[in-house]
Amino acid sequence: MKLIKWFLAILVTLVLVVTLYLTVFFDPNDFKPEIVSAVKKQTGRELVISDDLSWTFFPTIGINLGGISLSNPEGFTPKSMLDVNKAIAEVALMPLLSKEIEIAQLSLDGATINLVTRKNGSSSLDGLTGDSAAKASPANEPATKTQLASIEVGGVAITNTQINLIDEAKGQTQTFTLESLTLGAFSLDKFAPIAYEFTASLAEMKVSSKGEGEIKLSADFNQLVIDKFNIDTVIEGDSIPNQKVSTAISLNTQIALDKKQLSADIVKLSAADMSASGQLTLNYGGKVPQINADFQVGDIDLDALLPKSATTEGTEKTAQATTAAKASEPDLSALKSLDMKLKLAVKSIKVANLATQNWLLDLGVKGGVVDLKQLTADLYQGKLMVNAQVDARQSVASYQFDKQVTGVQVRALLKDLAEVDLLAGTANINIKGKGKSLIPEQLKKNLLANGRFDVTDGALYGVNIPQMIRSAQAKLKGDLSADTKEERKTDFSSLTGNFSLENGIATNPDLAMSSPLLRLAGKGSANLLTESLDYKLTTSLVNSLKGQGGSEKDALVGVDIPLAITGTFQKPEYALDTQALLNNQLKEETDKAKDKLKDSLLKKLGGF
């Protein structure tokens, strides 16, 4: 018992002696000129410590600093690169004797950092990293590593810190303000609360974000865990959809520091009216980081995110012409340094008034090549299936694709996609293609493709071919009162054809349409650049027009009648070749005359 008392007495005496020595004989302000001189020698910068340095003692030992300023290189504006209002660092004294670090308090308040990039490319950071440290330790000399028994942190607080990124070449300043970053009581292998709040004023937007969660570091310093981390962010700016987007994310993250691997379980991710969840893994130990992501996403309405346009048609055309003149290939060079696998399931996507459901995507990116292994979606009671590849290893990207559409209700699709009421029926389409350039206009010109379409139980809208034939036939007979009051619609049982695409023109050499009433066949083309149509077809009746206003037996049955389709995708125009009808009319009158002559002869011959 006496031994313990003596030990405590000696310990207290020792602490008092150290305290007395530090306060009376050792003034930290005496070292300020040496510190300033050392910084000047190492970096060429001016360091100013305007406030007096002061000690803190038992149960902690520490120092208070304030009024610190470090200059930018000569000729830079502003002159100061770093200003610190107040900094406090306190370490518990007794645990140090057992190789344990117990930080009672770390705090930094009122720091301002000005990082300038000048027009000639020089930066505020130039000259701060010297070679002296590297020269002091030979390359072949192993670094010494001190194994700590434990680390205890009473708390960390960083407040009112501002970082200004000044780019003189662009004439812009981006400001990041860290209102607060706090870490609660922290020790190895135990979770500690962490929270932050910051704002940023960027060139075209403003960002505000805050988050909180828990953090844990393993005793061997090999694993860092961030748990129950919730982040809320608001982004504002003219370039942002609807000028404002709010996002929220909740995640759990594990980082294997020794293996340089990160895995994140994203419990919730929401932006605007969209929500998602998924898993993300990152291996950052190699030269090219490896990323694996698997996400499940709810409903996506891209139309709600796009800005509402109030421009006139003329203004839109002018804007399109200007955009086309300035169009350039997108820079995809970043894809060369990416190794990523992405799986994505989306409940529904609405874009350009086009509604789709149940998207499944399997995508890989490696060495500048994007490989779309699978893309499927439900599309207007049918199915969309695509696989494709984009090669971005050259400055002008190339691509190839194989696309299949099965069982799609084409009328509803065309109405929603292009506001075109031209065709109805159940469509099956296969198309394979390849090309170069991702500029929209060049993409149309350079695309080479081949395909086939098959539409069943459908109708052509905007034209009633049987009615056109009947009306033209009646007028040739002298009935000028023939009108066209019937619905402009031609029903068919099948519409088929093959097509090829080159130089922006789709060529269809074998269009064929059939119905119980008529047949239609021929060839034509559609110009994707001008959206114009040019078809030369032949239509023929295979049955009477009865039921369509015709007679019991139609004289035109079996007669080929040329039909031309011109105009545009939006306004197609149909025209019959009435010369064929006229020729048939003359034939019909001749046949009638022959029949009358035959009847007259039979009567004269006694009925033979």
Low-confidence segments, given as residue ranges, are 1-26, 131-139, 141-146, 310-319, 321-325, 547-553, 604-608
Anisotropy-based shape: elongated
What structural class do the secondary elements suggest?
Answer: alpha+beta
Quote the distance from N terminus to C terminus: 155 Å
- How many DSSP helices? 9
* Biggest beta sheet summary: 30 strands, mixed
**Helix proportion of residues, in percent?**
10-25%
Rounded to an integer in angstroms, the radius of gyration calculated over CA atoms is 40 Å
Question: Percent of residues in beta strands?
Answer: over 45%
* Number of distinct beta strands: 30
- The mean pLDDT is 80
Highlighted features:
alpha+beta, 608 residues, 30-stranded mixed beta sheet, disordered C terminus, 19% helix, disordered N terminus
How would you describe what is shown here?
This protein has a 30-stranded mixed beta sheet that branches. 19% of the residues lie in helices and 50% in strands. The longest helix has 27 residues, at 578-604. With 608 residues, the chain is an alpha+beta fold. Mean pLDDT is 80; it is low at 1-26, 131-139, 141-146, 310-319, 321-325, 547-553 and 604-608.
